[in-house]
Amino acid sequence: MLRAVAVLVAAFLTAQPSPQITIRGRVVAAATGDPIRNARVAFDPKSDPSAVLTDADGRFVLAAVAPGRQTLHVWKTGYAAMAVPLAPDVEIRLQRGGVITGRVLDEFSEPLPLVSVAAEQVIRANGRVEFRRQPAVDTDDTGAYRIFGLPAGDFVVGLVGPRVSLGGTTSTPGPIGAGGMIRGYYPDGLFRDKAQTIAVHPGEEVAGINLTIQNPRFFGPQIPQSSADTAAYRRTAAIEGHVVHSDGLPARRARVMLSRADRTFSAWPTVADDNGHYQFSGLAPGDYRVVATDTSFRTTEHGQRTGSDHGELITAAAGRTVDGVDVVIPRGSAVSGRIVDEYGDPIENANVRVERIGWSHGRRRLVSVTGVASRQTDDRGRFRIFGLLPGRYVIGAVVGEPVPGWETADIPGYLRTYFPGSSGAAEAQLVEVTDDADALNTEFPLVRGRASRVAGRVFLASGAPFDGTVWLNQTARSGAITNVPVRQRTRADGSFEFTRLAPGEYVIQAATSREGTSVEGEFGVTFVPVGGTDVTNATVRMSPGSSIAGRITFDGARERADPQRVEILAGRPVDLDLWSLADNPTAHMTGREDGTWELAGLNGSRRLLISGLPRGWTLDRILVDGVDMTDTPLSFGSKDESVRDVEVVLTDRVTTIQGNVHDGRDQPSTGATVVAFSSTRSLWYPETRFVRMEGTVNGDFIMSGLPPGEYFVAALEGSGTALLEDRLDDRTFLESLVVGAARVTLDGGQRVLVSLRSR
Question: Is residue 99 a contact partner of residue 146, using CB atoms and an 8 Å limit?
């Protein structure tokens, strides 16, 4: 009996939780004893949710620490990270970090950007030598790199990536990646035992550790892309010229590409020689474009005047060489600055990126800049983002959250921040860069704040949990610039969770898979205000939506067309927050043989759209129960809101705007886009049929099917007009085209001629 009681008591004591302890301490500078504020203290060196920052006096508290912890990891920008044994009351003395700097150049002393450089600490112990790898860094557009936060000791430095050549003939096909092993060591060796050892002391910067890559680019022979071009390739036409920088100096080893204007043929890239000279030979007669890229990855066409323009076409004739086809590559534009904390102290390994304001889903939205990588700050908090075309950009920075391809500093308590210092993109100040000047001194502090969590569940119309993707974005009701939507897969019980959200109002959407092109499926939405506290009970209930059905009729003198060529579409919801963040296509179908059609699964107010009209026909009116509802939104959402009697009436009285476009040199504009838009501003809504764009062919254009009314007509030059389709519902953009636009009036069946000058 006594033995049984003893066993029970022992089991009870064993089951009791061990007492938790509180760790207090102070972080100071080893050299001076001064307190270090905002130092990170944690049990793990990376991704520790219990991490804390020291206060203005360098003090910290770690509460409710479970037994078993042995080590504290301490880090601060500009200092070498340190691991110390755990103690209830501890003073931690951080040493200043060492720095190694230099440049990576080609054999002509030209800078090489986006090359990864790493240092390895040489550890000698017990008669053995080991090498401890430090994080790699990338060079900027000046070829400069900066390895920081190094502990005192001896180091070797080298290039990271495949097939790097230092003084040899091995080459790499492009920028050296951040991953992989060190393949070449300072000063000029391929092997570590030949590397020069660099002594680093606390707080010391060792400069001038420059590395050279011989022949950093290699491209294959100039050949056609397909065998069908072989015969034409053997013709004797040729194009040659020089690639130079805007200062007139040759762009040595620039990559030069050639393509046919009709895109039926492209030659493999060639490489300019030491004088910037290049040549393409064996070309079929025709029109070509020449494009060149230098080591800064700035790309320019021959004859290109601005970043959004196409260059000039080169006409190559059989038996002749077109020479003097020069390409001028402007100096790359850059944004540089510093990221600091609330005290003005630098923050290292903050991820900084530039974005532009685009137009999507009827809203101004931040979009990434093609071909421009984000960058990390160094131990001075400095960053430099390069390769930018002239324009106006939004600059943002973040720590403590995942960024693809980067490892940001795990510093708690800061929100994603936009220049000059706000957590909302709507308050961001645009930064302008030009071909003549970089945007310098773009310094701003990260915003302190608590990122929130939103969790909840999604249910189908039947009440069952939803198994699929849920989307979150800032609401359009705020009228603010919004970020890119984020998404997450629900769990088996329909639950979801979004983290690291800044204060604001958000919309959450969910939609089932489409049952067909004419049925959108179930859809649900809810709105969630976030104000620094977590939301744990957000609920999205889905609806099967409404249906709409009708028929297609023809009103005109010509013979009735085939209704199976007419496409009926449910336009995007008028309420921007009901637009599918998943970019699912709206319900659509072509008419049946008898002219009938039906769409289903519709939610939100919609305008019916008509597409694929037979030649010689255009939309005249849309009747709902006999009432003209053309261009009027119809309300959908429940089965009770379904509409059955809809007549789509087509007419053969088609309007036409026809004309020509000339550029600033009074030449026919082959790369222009003509935009015609109603003079009535209330008709500038998303997917409106009162705004139309059309490209030019040899400077001529023809635009048919606009509804009768008064219109502005303007022409825009350059390849940038390929992005216009997303901006046709941007009222600010259309307003910018009014001044200088031609003005025309269209009646039913009327043809109007107009001559335009591109801008």
Answer: yes
The tokens describing 25, both together, are 């301490």
Question: For residue 324, what are its two tokens?
Answer: 């003097």
**May I ask the CATH class of domain 227-329?**
mainly beta
CATH placement of domain 98-213: 2.60.40.1120
Helix, strand, coil percentages in the chain from 3-state DSSP, rounded to 5: 10, 45, 45
What's the mean pLDDT in 301-307? 73
Pick the CATH number of 452-541 from 3.40.190.10, 3.30.420.10, 2.30.130.40, 2.60.40.10: 2.60.40.10
The pLDDT of residue 564 is 92
Each residue's pLDDT tens digit, 703-730: 999 999 999 999 987 644 445 666 777 8
Question: Which whole number is the average pLDDT over 475-483?
Answer: 75
Q: Where are the domains of the chain?
A: 21-94, 98-213, 227-329, 333-448, 452-541, 546-651, 656-757
Q: What is the pTM of this model?
A: 0.76
Predicted pLDDT of residue 282: 83
Q: Class of 333-448 per CATH?
A: mainly beta
Least confident window among 218-222, 388-392, 497-501, 608-612? 218-222
Closest CA relative to residue 671, chosen from 627, 731, 736, 715:
715
How far is 737 from 446, CA to CA, in rounded Å? 38
Q: How many CB atoms lie within 10 A of CB 440?
A: 12
Residues 6+ apart with CB under 8 A from 214: 106, 107, 165, 166, 167, 168, 169, 171
Q: Is 455 exposed, middle or buried (0-12, 13-18, 19+ CB in 10 A)?
A: middle
What is each CA distance from 664 to 70, 307, 327, 697, 756, in whole angstroms? 73, 16, 20, 17, 11
DSSP 452-482: EEEEEEEE-TTSPBP-SEEEEEE-GGG---B
CATH number among 2.60.40.1120, 2.60.120.10, 1.20.200.10, 2.60.260.20, domain 656-757: 2.60.40.1120
Residue 455 vs residue 8, higher pLDDT: 455
DSSP 3-state of 724: helix
Q: What angle do CA 710, 711, 712 make, to 5 degrees?
A: 145
Least confident of 74-83, 180-189, 242-251, 614-623: 180-189
What percentage of the chain has pLDDT greater than the value 70?
A: 87
What is residue 730's predicted lDDT score, i.e. its pLDDT? 80
Closest C-alpha among 619, 587, 590 to residue 606 = 587
Q: With 90 as the cut, is the pLDDT of residue 184 above it?
A: no
Pair 573, 606: CB distance under 8 Å = yes
